[in-house]
Design brief:
Blueprint lengths: L11 E7 L9 H12 L3 E8 L3 H13 L5 E5 L10 H5 L5 E2 L1 H15 L9 E5 L2 E6 L3 H15 L15
Parallel strand pairs: 1-2, 1-3, 3-6
Antiparallel strand pairs: 4-5, 5-6
Protein name: Molybdenum cofactor biosynthesis protein B
GO cellular component, one term: cytosol
Organism: Oceanimonas pelagia
């Protein structure tokens, strides 16, 4: 049975950049995600930049998950292995269901570009309160890979045989 629609379903998507150094002028990754999602016909619900603090990240993402105005949360940054990278630890406890395949597929696609360095990516995806949450690395290239290689299709109601839209609307 197909879980695809015949028509586009615009989603309300929030974008969070996690960075201790970026601001609106230098946030190329967040800007890429905003341009990609609006270019695909979705709506930007909100955009924010936060320092890499587990509790600040968790508080904002919790608010977005609880909001009926947000159906998807895209997070860029904080997924590496430095002492300041806490995005997965901030987000994982909020998820009702982890979408293991998102991180696995992201690393598979990235392996083609970066080789074994992809093992250091802690890309994460999941569902919480009918909201999809995806954590991507902070580089613009990684956001491009995640959007073009996975998210553009999985956030498109017309993608067959299935996509995430049915779980969000």
């Amino acid at each position: 049975m197909s879980h695809a629609s015949q028509e586009r379903v615009p989603l309300n998507i929030a974008v969070l950049t996690v960075s201790d150094t970026r601001n609106e002028d230098t946030d190329t990754s967040g800007r890429f995600l905003v341009d990609a999602l609006t270019g695909a016909g979705h709506k930007l619900a909100e955009k924010a930049i936060l320092k890499d603090d587990k509790y600040d990240i968790r508080a904002l993402v919790s608010r977005w998950i609880a909001s009926p105005e947000v159906q998807v949360v895209l997070i860029t940054g904080g997924t590496g292995f430095t002492g300041r990278d806490t995005t997965p630890e901030a987000v994982a406890p909020l998820l009702d269901t982890v979408v293991d395949g998102f991180g696995e597929l992201f690393r598979h696609i990235t392996y083609q570009e970066l080789g074994t360095s992809t093992v250091q990516s802690r890309a994460l995806g999941g569902l919480a309160n009918r909201t999809a949450v995806f954590c991507l690395p902070g580089s613009t290239g990684a956001c491009r890979t995640g959007w073009n290689g996975i998210l553009a299709e999985q956030l498109d109601a017309r993608h067959k045989p299935c996509n995430f839209v049915q779980h969000l609307v």
